[in-house]
From TrEMBL:
Name by which UniProt lists this protein: Rhodanese domain-containing protein
Domain (Rhodanese) ranges: 58-103
Top-rank taxon: Bacteria
Keyword set includes Isomerase: no
Biased composition (Basic and acidic residues): 30-49
Native species: Cryobacterium algoricola
């Protein structure tokens, strides 16, 4: 039979903090699932603004319609480096659906972006992102302090076939890998 705790605290004091320190009553600490990096990057509210913030840097990909280039880049970044960065994508004039040929090219690589929907980029996303990558020329986005902007001039794959889009996907994949090392 175990001896009771001799701590002067109340009988129900064995909270998470005092499990080991107060009385040598060595209970197992609660198990936390997932790798350490993901636990550390949990979403929490910011003390100043009250908005939910993750501990990972945000990368925002922006193009005109958010259906081809930005969705491909976001899908590749999320699949390869989603455990260390938060990935967002948006457009200035969102289309109705993701480019089916781009989605098929990524699906052949084991990345499914068919469920993604094109959406408009918001000013809050532009303000909180660590890196904003513009994938088309002719778009001027507002600049905020502490946000790094990059411009990748890529052709529009809207009218391309599934075979024609493959070199573009390869190019975006190399650029995404390079960006991930610099974030």
């Amino acid at each position: 039979m175990r001896r009771p705790c001799r701590s002067p605290l109340s009988p129900g004091h064995h909270g998470r903090r005092n499990r080991v320190r107060c009385c040598r009553r060595r209970r197992a600490l609660p198990r936390r699932d997932g790798p350490r990096e993901l636990r550390r990057a949990s979403v929490r509210p910011d003390r100043r603004t009250g908005q939910r913030v993750s501990g990972r840097p945000e990368v925002l990909f922006v193009c005109r319609h958010n259906s081809g280039r930005s969705q491909i880049a976001a899908g590749l970044m999320r699949a390869r480096f989603g455990d260390v960065v938060t990935v967002l994508s948006g457009g200035i004039e969102p289309a109705d659906a993701v480019n089916p040929h781009g989605a098929a090219a990524l699906l052949a690589r084991g990345i499914d972006i068919r469920h993604q929907l094109p959406r408009r980029v918001t000013d809050d996303e532009l303000r909180t992102a660590a890196v904003v990558v513009t994938l088309v020329d002719g778009i001027e986005l507002p600049r905020h302090d502490g946000v790094r902007h990059e411009r990748w001039i890529l052709p529009d794959p809207a009218q391309w076939s599934a075979v024609e889009i493959l070199p573009l996907v390869d190019d975006i994949e190399h650029r995404v890998s390079d960006l991930a090392t610099r974030v």
